[in-house]
Amino acid sequence: MECEWCGESNLTEMTNTVYWELPDGTRAIEIKETPAKSCLVCGMQYQTEEMIEELEDQLYLIDTSKIDKVISYESLMSQPRLLKRNYFKF
Question: What does pTM read for this prediction?
Answer without folding.
Answer: 0.87
